[in-house]
Structures are given as structure tokens and as C-alpha cells.
Design goal:
The protein is an alpha/beta fold and 207 residues long. Helix 1 packs across helix 8, helix 2 runs antiparallel to helix 3 and helix 4 packs across helix 7. Strands 2-3-1-4-5 form a five-stranded parallel β-sheet, sandwiched between helices. It is built from eight helices and five strands; from the N terminus they run E-H-E-H-H-E-H-H-E-H-H-E-H.
């Protein structure tokens, strides 16, 4: 099973991906947790370029191809072999992030991004995608509370994030694999909602 988490920055995706992987391991499932961009030697080098605030002058198209290059490496080197080995793969972001951030956020061609997403992933589609929906006012609060500082991607303005959120919500209306969860809920409440869905899917696959 291939499970992905999506959402705005500071929505709690990484925490929920980790909690789910820990719960799956406790239930004796063979699980692998990953993050995007990254997850491979090449991917981590690309990640450092993309998130470094010192990286200046990058065009939106270059950003798109760098994210997609990291994803392609991750799919071929890690995700596909893990799925073929009957593992459950949990990934913090996947190609829906590119559709939302580089598509709606940056204003790049939706048609071009769909083609690039499909090509970079060799057509791989998640079995379920959890979208942790965070409102813009709550995003602002969490950013202000963060002590780590904003990376290059997190330094975009409110207008950018409004477009990204609307794109995610639009995807959720169109894609049956999307499960929308209110990110304002407690960590425990979100985790239980995620777990109920995953447990049900695992039981269905076992039949």
C-alpha cells in the first residue's frame, strides 16, 4: 500500500506520517516512511538546493524540474522496490505537492505539470492521500510560533498559500483517494482518523 500526506507547511504532515509508520510497525506491518524532496542520496542534494534560503534566482520551471527529478529518483530507487517487496510506504508529500505549489502557487501550466508528474513517477498513484487542511490564519500563527525559521519554500506570501490550499481542496473534490482532515484538530484526533482509514484499507487488501 502506498500512503501519502499532503498539506500546507506547518500542517502537521510529518508528525502524522511518523505516527502512522510507528503504529503500523507496532501492528507488525512492514513499513517504510519517506519524505519529499529527498529520500535518496541524489534527492537529499536536490532538497538542500530547493530549501536553502541562500538559493536565489531560481526560475519556477527550474524548481518544478528539481522537485520532479528528486521524485523520479525516489520512485525508481526506493518506492517501487519497497512496494514490490510488499511493504507499506508512507510518504510525506508526493506529486500532489507539485500540482498545488508549482501549478497553482507558481502559476505554471496544469497540463504540463500533469505530464511531468506522470513521467517522473512512471504512473505511480497513491492508494490514499491524507490532506491536512490548514486555514491561512492558523498557518500564520504556526509560522510565528516556529523557532526553526522559514526555509526558501516556506517564505512565500499569503497569496501564494491561498492558491495552494484552493488547489488541494479542488483535488480532494475530484480524486477519490483524497481524505480531508481538519488540521486544527489535536495530533491524537488526526492520528486516529488516519489510522481508522488505513486499518480498513489494510483489512480490505487482506481479503
Amino acid at each position: 500500500m502506498f500512503i501519502t500526506f499532503e498539506g500546507l507547511d506547518f500542517s502537521g504532515k510529518s508528525t502524522q506520517a511518523r505516527l502512522l509508520s510507528e503504529r503500523l510497525s507496532q501492528e507488525n506491518f512492514n513499513v517504510l516512511v519517506l519524505r519529499e524532496p529527498g529520500g535518496t542520496e541524489i534527492g537529499e542534494k536536490i532538497r538542500s538546493i530547493l530549501l536553502d534560503k541562500q538559493t536565489s534566482g531560481m526560475t519556477d520551471t527550474s524548481e518544478l524540474f528539481l522537485f520532479s527529478a528528486s521524485r523520479s529518483q525516489l520512485v525508481e530507487e526506493v518506492i517501487k522496490p519497497a512496494l514490490e517487496g510488499s511493504m507499506i510506504v508512507v510518504c510525506d508529500r508526493f506529486y500532489d505537492s507539485t500540482t498545488a505549489y508549482q501549478g497553482s502557487g507558481r502559476g505554471l501550466s496544469e497540463e504540463a505539470i500533469n505530464v511531468i508528474n506522470t513521467f517522473a513517477t512512471a504512473g505511480l498513484v497513491p492508494d490514499v492521500t491524507f490532506f491536512l487542511d490548514l486555514t491561512l490564519p492558523e498557518l500564520e500563527k504556526r509560522m510565528l510560533r516556529s523557532k526553526s525559521g522559514k526555509d526558501r519554500m516556506e517564505s512565500n506570501g499569503q497569496g501564494f498559500y491561498e492558491k495552494v490550499r484552493e488547489c488541494y481542496l479542488s483535488l480532494a473534490r475530484k480524486e477519490k483517494r483524497f481524505v480531508v482532515i481538519d488540521a486544527i484538530k489535536s495530533i491524537e484526533e488526526i492520528h486516529e482518523a488516519v489510522w481508522q482509514k488505513v486499518e480498513h484499507m489494510a483489512a480490505q487488501k487482506a481479503k
